[in-house]
Amino acid sequence: MPPLGPRLVVAGTSSGVGKTTFATGLMAALRRRGVAVASAKVGPDFIDPGYHSLATGRPGRNLDAWLCDAGTVGPLAARAAAGADVLVVEGVMGLFDGAAGEHGPAPLASTAQVAALLDAPVVLVVDASAMSGSVAALVHGFATFSPAVRVAGVVLNRVGGDSHENMLRAALAPLGVPVLGVLRRDDALSWRDRHLGLVPVVEAPAAVGGALERLAGAVAMGCDLDRLLRLAASSPTVSVAPPPEARRSGSARVAVLGGRAFAFTYPDNLELLQQAGAELVPVDPEADRRLPPGVTALYAGGGFPEVFAAGLAANRPLLDDVRRRVGAGMVTWAECGGLLWLSRSLDGHPMAGALAVDGRMTARLTLGYRRARTTVDTPLGRASTALRGHEFHYSAVEPGGAALRWHGRDGEGGGGFASPTLLASYLHVHLASDPRLAERFVAAAERAAGRRAPMAEELQSRAP
User: Fold this and answer.
1) Three-state DSSP class for residue 315
2) Contacts of 68 (CB under 8 A, 6+ apart)
3) Per-residue confidence at 456, pLDDT binned at 50, 70, 90?
4) For residue 200, what pLDDT band results from cuts at 50, 70 and 90?
5) Where are the beta strands (DSSP E) in 118-216?
6) Inter-axis angle of helices 47-56 and 205-222, nearest 10
7) Beta strands 428-429 and 386-398, pairing class
8) What is the model's pLDDT at position 459?
């Protein structure tokens, strides 16, 4: 694996200060200058990487030391950065915000932890809209809080005008933390929001593309791109181990749900499935009338099916085809939005009916990391297979199922539906946490299709 080269981490003092605005605009501005930019997002988020991908022209990756483990962060970052001139990593929440119950100078799953693991300089984004001299106290605190994290510069966001900017710069000057950019208050640079954050790029790529061009121009005008590139190049070259890989375990033609409604799938998951022997075939559940020929398995990731419920329900031929195929034993893995699509209904709209449950949107957010175990055999392994994942949804299904037992910050719980050929739950899993899961899925699909494949016991016993 090539060593990890030029890189920087974009962090914020909290959520909502403009990390995504600046990070995505920086990626786009650098690309317009001919720089090959790679991107990654700290944490389990799916939406921000979609914006990154549009800005860079490369897959948007995730770096999550909880979903996987700390040892995977460097290798996964190196895979993201392969062939690029610079890697820009966008943080999550505030710089030192980690998993629930984790506190300290570099808490688990925090931006600070990832920056320390990558030995990368941090650019701190500050919402300066309602402060002047206090900005110095804020930045001083972040810059001195942890010796493991190097806050190498500041970007001031939502600055009111020249006099406001001058006050902010004067306050920060004694700290020795350089101001690397200033972005003025501008409603044209605001992103459209939804209950889980930004609206996915796939829903309105032309509109997002136009906004991205304006954002790239604003960042190029207000920020010192040359200095930012020099800062990234100041990162020490770091050798890393190869990223987690799956060995070939069989052959399967896997339909992968996509389109506007299902954009939440980790690129690393798709690549690990391919390494295990899967041929991936995209399916648009609004447009395609049936599953592609020769498909032996289905991977239905997450998204916003509730937004497109009417269009999904109108595609009855595909829903009927999926219900028949899943009922006949086609190997299926569904996460969150995919679970809702396999249900009988979603807010009264008829769905596939492959599961005898009904979905509905609620006002309650379910959020958090989970350590789970399967209670029955599934395509990902025998009963008691360990899974690490993340939930983030405003929906519920009734009945709730009991295929998984998990514990997280809110205590213990369970849910989901499973059989030797099916796993459907709210849990999003990053396969780099255990590539054997990809191997077992492909092997299960090959066995279910009547071909020879490794037995589950063989794949279950291989060391991670």
Assistant:
1) coil
2) 76, 244, 388, 430, 432, 433
3) very low
4) confident
5) 122-127, 151-159, 179-184, 193-194, 197-198
6) 70
7) antiparallel
8) 47
- Edge-to-edge strand list for the sheet holding 122-127: 61-63, 37-42, 86-90, 7-12, 122-127, 151-159, 179-184
Q: Mean pLDDT, to the nearest integer, of 24-38? A: 97
Query: Degrees (nearest 5) of the Cα angle 267, 270, 271?
Result: 90
- Helix (H) / strand (E) element for 53: namely helix 47-56
Q: Is the pLDDT reported for residue 189 higher than 80?
A: no
* Residues whose CB falls within 8 Å of the CB of residue 461, separated by 6 or more in sequence, listed in order: none
Q: Of 108, 31, 32, which Cα lies nearest the Cα of 64?
A: 108
Asked whether 390 and 342 are in contact (CB, 8 A), the reply is no
Length of the chain: 464
Distance CA 460, CA 439 (A): 9
Instruction: Phi first, then psi: give them for residue 338, nearest 5 degrees.
Output: -65, -35
The Cα–Cα gap between 62 and 382 comes to 28
Contact 21, 215 (CB under 8 A): yes
What does the pLDDT average to over 246-250?
98
Q: pTM here?
A: 0.93
Residue whose C-alpha is closest to residue 154's, from 185, 129, 175, 133 = 175
**Which DSSP category does 341 fall into?**
H
**Six-digit token string for 166:** 């001058």
Q: Write out the catalytic residue numbers.
A: 336
User: How far, CA to CA in Å, does 220 sit from each of 24, 183, 261, 287, 319?
Assistant: 12, 10, 33, 39, 47
Long-range CB contacts for residues 449-455, cutoff 8 Å, separation at least 24: 449/252, 449/296, 451/250, 451/251, 453/249, 453/250, 454/249, 454/250
Q: Are 279 and 316 in contact (CB under 8 A)?
A: no
Instruction: Give per-residue pLDDT as tens, 69-120.
Output: 999 999 999 999 999 999 999 999 999 999 866 778 889 999 999 999 999 9
Residue with tokens 């300089």: 121
DSSP at 142? H
User: For residue 195, what pLDDT band results from cuts at 50, 70 and 90?
Assistant: very low
| Residues 229/419, Cβ–Cβ less than 8 Å | no
Residue 141 DSSP label? H
Q: How far apart are CA 301 and CA 427, in angstroms?
A: 10
Three-state DSSP class for residue 307:
coil
Cβ contacts of 205-208, under 8 Å, gap ≥ 24: 205/54, 208/51, 208/54
- Preceding amide of 399 cis, omega within 30: yes
pLDDT at 455 over 50: no
